[in-house]
Amino acid sequence: MIYIALFFLLIGIELIYFKIADKYNIIDKPNSRSSHTSITLRGGGIIFPIAILIAFFLGDISWELTLAVVLVGLVSFIDDIKPLSQLPRFASHVIAVGLVFYNLNLYSEALWLLPIVFVLLIGWVNAFNFMDGINGITVLYALTAIITFAYLPLNEASLPVLITMALSCVVFGLFNVRKKAKTFAGDVGSISMALFLGYFMIKSIIDSGQLGYILFFSVYGIDAIITIINRLLKKENIFQPHRSHLYQYLANEMGYSHVAVSISYAILQLGINIIIIYVDTKGSLSLYFAGGFLVLMTLVYLAVRVFIVRQLSLKESRA
């Protein structure tokens, strides 16, 4: 019953936010690089850090993770309303990562490991933020990751907060996973969710000793990294908005439904996660398997991307 009540509470909070966003003109206006064509309320992802706060007051989550997620969420929300310089945004990320490290007792690990995990976590947070762009992509992918973490026996003690965050995803999805979205997550949603997911990725790897779990983020990861490399080769500013992710090509240039593309990404990642968990239960999830699987996925991704780009080139030449 408590989760049913929580679900309706989150819906109420989201609707109240919509009133505030509408009153104070917190909106996304489409431009030439946008994947949407109409004015949409921004920052609906504020429901994610709010859900974390609720979980904290219910006693389901540590103060370190709560503070970390709320901190990056707050700074990102301010940035959504009035763009900030790079310094306060990066500073909030560094402090948040420091809190995550403290919670996971990483400061007791080898010193050489800390900068590696730091770079990977910061990279993941920013990659997840950059991957937002079409209706449903962020929330469905996040929900897939949360369901996966909740399934792992080692996260049994964290089920209450995982369920709470899953409910926040469902609530946000009601207004975002549509042909015409009512709201977008904004940086407040994508960055706070990315940090939350990154925390559980590190926690799951530490508790299990299974580095192969990093494949739970492989679909987003491969698309983000290949796109960044491609943009660098073109000498583009990778920090500027763009429409060159594979999912953006599919949704914008190829004309496939935004929601259909988002669901496809989520289903593909869920299928991969099921394979990884199954292989792990059989005791075969070695670094060799994980590495080989990652290489295979990358090759498949590149083949699909090259095919789509060629189709678009043919389409443009006929126009």
Automatic annotation (TrEMBL):
List localization entries: Cell membrane
Q: Which GO terms describe its cellular component?
A: plasma membrane
Which amino acids does the record list as binding Mg(2+)? N129, D187
Which GO annotations describe the biological process of this protein? cell wall macromolecule biosynthetic process; cell wall organization; lipopolysaccharide biosynthetic process
Tell me what topology the record assigns in the membrane: Multi-pass membrane protein
Q: Pfam families under this entry?
A: Glycos_transf_4
A GO term, aspect molecular function: phosphotransferase activity, for other substituted phosphate groups
Cofactor field: Mg(2+)
Keywords associated with the record:
Cell membrane, Magnesium, Membrane, Metal-binding, Transferase, Transmembrane, Transmembrane helix
Q: Where are the transmembrane segments?
A: 45-75, 110-127, 134-152, 158-177, 184-202, 214-233, 254-279, 285-308
- Per the UniProt entry, the signal peptide is none
Q: Which domain of life is it from?
A: Bacteria
The protein's name? UDP-N-acetylmuramyl pentapeptide phosphotransferase/UDP-N-acetylglucosamine-1-phosphate transferase
> Native species of this protein?
Flavobacterium frigoris
